[in-house]
Description:
By secondary structure, the chain is mainly β. It is 8% helix and 33% strand. The protein contains 6 helices and 37 strands. Strands 10, 12, 14, 16, 17, 19 and 21 form a 7-stranded mixed β-sheet that branches. Strands 1, 2, 3, 5, 7 and 11 form a 6-stranded mixed β-sheet that branches. A hairpin with a 2-residue loop joins strand 16 and strand 17 (297-298). The longest helix has 20 residues, at 18-37. The two termini are 39 Å apart.
Amino acid sequence: KPYLFSRSVPSSNMVSSLPVAFAFVFSLFSIIKNVASQTCLVSPPELPWTLGNGVYSGSITFDAATFTKNGVTFTTRVHNGMLPSPTLRMVAGETYELTLTNMLTDVNPSSTINVVKELDYTNIHTHGVHLTGEAPGDSVFTVVTPQGGPLTSYTYRYHIPCDHIGGTHWYHPHHHGSTTVQVGGGAAGALIIEDRPDEVLNYPQWYNDLAEDELVLVIQNLDLGKVAQVGGNLDNTFSTSSNTAFYTVNGEYQPSICLETHKRRKLRISHVDLQSSATFLIDSTSCTVELLARDGVLLETVPRVIGSHEMWFSVSSRADVAVQCSVAGTYSLVSGGVTVALFVVTNGDATPTTITPFSVTDAMRPGYLQDLRSYSGTYNTQTIGMSAKTIKGQKWSSPDNFLFEVDAGSVNEWTINGAGAHPFHVHINHFQIISNGLTGPSGWSQVGDWIDSLNTGATVRFRADRFGGTVVLHCHILEHEDGGAMAVYKINGGCNGDKADFGPPSAPACDWSCTAPAPTAPATTATPTTATPTSPPTTTTSTTTTTTTTTTGTASESPTTPSPTTPAPVPSSCAQTDDSCKNNLECCIGLTCSGGFGNQRFCE
């Protein structure tokens, strides 16, 4: 570390300075010893992918494993014997096949719905990723049975759209009836979509540099007592030596997150909790928290400084933050008075690095994230009420019982009520906050943010982009979801799980292109300024009536497709492997940046 060699013993009067010299040497030895003995938290291991015939393949198993954390020994269901699950890292424009094999053994099928059941039956939901909800994609109605059942292994196929924005997401089991005990027991992992090469070219150097030392954090509130209570006598797999609850970060109890003074470190944080949102506070005024992204989508202006040093999460949300501390020391990350982790800050740079905030405009976003605050065309409306057992007044009944239907490509405005007590999550498409919807400390959330998990009432808008088929929405208090607070709606047209027309023939066809619809009105571009704490945002009020599914408004301007830009000349070095598209991203303009194994990425 540079600071170890930043001091020197005076060269004159050496004899009289011996006590000082010895004191310094002893101090230096202590620092070296402390640094050497300090175990710094690292990101969870990543699942390896194997490339063959243009497809990346990987596999995970679902089985029981026993852990001892915080003095508690418990046996629970996890992926690949790991807590948390291995991180999945993917690249836009690529296809991934993930084979899930269920090694559990309790075969007890049940046709009863909205009850705790089939606790060893499982599947995977890619929470936050813009993917089809149809099999073999992100269908939560695929059921992978225990050994002895009819389908003990299943291969998901994920076609990541070529314009998918880079961001932090997560994945977890989502079988109706067993979601609570499986996710609550620890079966969850981070899912990272890497920034596309064109995104990197649009971002400033200071932001891109954060990727070199980023840390993936999966914060799990392991409420073992709740898991035991929900599973009850039906659960023949889970057991615990104590019905307690405590936080782990990347599977560790109160770990140390290592920083150097005046050096920003990017944290990709996923928060997993069965019941409650959480505020995490860094208990030092020498540390700053800069919010970069929410639920895997960059903010309109990056960063957003959170002056209270707090980070807020719903039961299922994510955030990318940059943390920087000016004074060496050990500081606590606390939630509700409980220490979750420690920030261990050692001496690094002597002065802070000045950055210039940057704006993320519509021209830098894909079609499904085009700003809809000023949209004045035709859109559908819905009012969606959340409760402990129902959505829009209906209890879960069947994947064929749609609350309503819309067309692919349509713009939709929903007013969501009751999400304060029953956090709302919808699959496939993120939504933009139009009014209300503000949670967390001052500046954490603002009108215009794109999220997929909502913990308060709000009016939101989204475009039903690209994918047709069944879309799931539910309360993310998973005990409520298992109990019936889940529903589906249908998108007609668009693409199915294999990039073909979903249908019917009269509906919009599948469009797998990367060209985004242009916004109907230009987005306001923020002027970069010195990063300062954000003032409380002003809440706007929607003027559109949102009570039933109707078509409202008059289309003053329809979305249009911009002319594609001509790609820059492609250097011959793009055929090279290794660092050719990690450190020379411009070589990939007009090509595909393949891979996703850190430096082992290449242009083709």
